[in-house]
Amino acid sequence: MDYSYYYDAARKVLDMHAVLLSEDNMNWLKALPYHRRYPDLGIKVCHGSPVNEEEFEYIFAPEQAYGLLPFYRSLDHMTFIGHSHLCRVFALTETAVEEISHKRFTIAPDRRYIISVGSVGQPRDYDNRASYTVYDTETRLFQFKRVEYDIETSASKIFEARLERNFGNRLFIGV
């Protein structure tokens, strides 16, 4: 990736971790695809937007989800994304976008879904618990889940590594 996208503190973290990886580990990471698709389930998993995946574009607001409407027919039934660290769901039809605020709902067969799954370690929605999702392929029930984790220990490791203090501080407030 082009490092110019990142600010200095983030580049420092990337450089620190790159040194810790073996050459085999680094090569394995570099060889990973930008997405993974599960065609029998109609599911795609990628980091950011399912369009222009290498750009890691954000989709955390309805306006950004509207930008996907021209690609509606090529979207998978459900696309799980990260990048924003926010828990968001957008249900698309060919002409509209609806943000779904429920934490538990049934996936409709006649829509396309963009689901931002949140974050295990850096939630940014003022809920400091780790977030993850569960999708039951038989009942079509989707759920956001939250779980407490040891923030003190996680933040301490960040502080001990002498990284930007904000990286540790934000864990406590979930931003």
Return the string of H and E elements: HHEEHEEEEEEEHH
CATH architecture classification name of the largest domain: 4-Layer Sandwich
Q: Compute the number of helices.
A: 5
* Total domain units: 2
Write down the CATH class of the largest domain: Alpha Beta
Radius of gyration: 18 Å
Mean pLDDT: 95
The proportion of strand residues reads 25-35%
- Predict the CATH topology of the largest domain: Purple Acid Phosphatase, chain A, domain 2
- CATH homologous superfamily of the largest domain, by name? Metallo-dependent phosphatases
In which order are the strands of the major sheet placed? 1-2-3-7-4-5
**Oligomeric state of shown chains:** single chain
Largest sheet properties: 6 strands, mixed
Question: What sort of overall outline do the alpha carbons produce when their principal axes are compared?
Answer: globular
Which bin fits the share of residues in helices? Answer: 25-40%
Low-pLDDT parts are none
SS-based class? alpha+beta
Strand segment count: 9
Termini gap: 24 Å
Please outline the helices and strands:
Layout: H1 8-20, H2 23-31, E1 35-38, E2 43-46, H3 62-66, E3 78-81, E4 87-92, E5 97-99, E6 104-106, E7 112-117, E8 130-136, E9 141-147, H4 151-160, H5 165-173
Helix pairs in contact: 4-5
Key attributes of the depicted protein:
single chain; Purple Acid Phosphatase, chain A, domain 2; 175 residues; 25% strand; alpha+beta; 26% helix; six-stranded mixed sheet; 9 strands
